[in-house]
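In the lab's daily routine, each protein ends up as an entry in a very long ledger. A line of letters takes care of the sequence, but it says nothing directly about the fold. The fold becomes a row of whole numbers, each drawn from a learned catalogue of backbone shapes. The protein below has been through that process, and both of its lines are reproduced in full:
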Amino acid sequence: MPYVHIKLTPEGLTKEKKATLIRKVTELLCDELDKNPETTIITIEEVPTDNWGIGGESVTRRRQL
């Protein structure tokens, strides 16, 4: 039972794009690793850019520069 947890910032992340991501990641695991799609779990966590840091700065701040 594969479990994939994807963390992304929410910009441009529509319901349709999330559905496509879930479908394609599931297909990849099935095609490449022969995993059963019925037991493959994909979760998407949207992380606000204020809550994501790189190099000591929030992503919000880095994108302002």
Q: What stands out?
A: The first strand starts at residue 3 and ends at 8. Strands lie at 3-8, 41-46, 53-54, 57-58. Residues 9 and 47 are 5 Å apart (CA to CA).
